Amino acid sequence: MIRILGIDPGTVVTGWGMIEEASGKITHLDNGGIFPKKGRPFPERIFYLHQQISLLIQQHQPDVVALEDIFVAKNVSSALKLGHARGAAMVAAGESGLPLYEYTANHVKKALTGYGHATKEQIQKMVKTLLKLPGEAFTDASDALAVAVCHANSYRLLKKVAQS
Q1: Is 34 helix (H, G, I), strand (E, B) or coil?
Q2: What's this model's pTM, rounded to 2 decimal places?
Q3: Which tens digits make up the pLDDT trace of 109-120?
Q4: How many Cα atoms within 13 Å fall on the side-chain side of residue 81?
């Protein structure tokens, strides 16, 4: 059994999702978002992300953290800010002694839908279906759950390879 904290980092909203994988069965445990206060200085927002992720780790006791990798778009400033949010998650995982795995958005999309350019709506529907959620999680939490599911699938494969 492995408990996975998936994180979709962001400076406005950081989505998170907690799942458990045991013998090929993936179970949804919890999900949500971290919302740093708007208008606060940027360093305070990043520190807040770090604190909240650290609290999630303490509360849910994951075995690993799966983090969405940076998608470099046309806006370099946004990519740099996203890097800071990812750093806050990385430090929280490192302080807790947890292994951290990173997955690109395309890798996550392909793992869930078989198509690396799936839409956010397609990801939400697959997450809802795979985890048997009563409704769709909000976008950022759904993305975080997708990262966690991607790791669960990768973990099973890596475990099988290691055993052979």
Answers
A1: strand
A2: 0.92
A3: 999 888 888 888
A4: 15
Residue-level length of the chain: 164
Of the candidates 53, 27, 28, 49, the one whose C-alpha atom is nearest the C-alpha of residue 40 is 49
Split at pLDDT 50, 70, 90, the class of 72 is: low
What 3-state DSSP class applies to 26? Answer: strand
CA distances to 29, 32, 114, 132, 146 from 71, in Å: 27, 21, 19, 28, 16
Fill in the amino acid letter for 12.
Answer: V
The residues annotated with a catalytic role in the active site are: 8, 68, 140
Distances (CA, A) of 49 to 9, 52, 78: 9, 5, 16
Distance (Å, whole) CA 134 – CA 61: 24
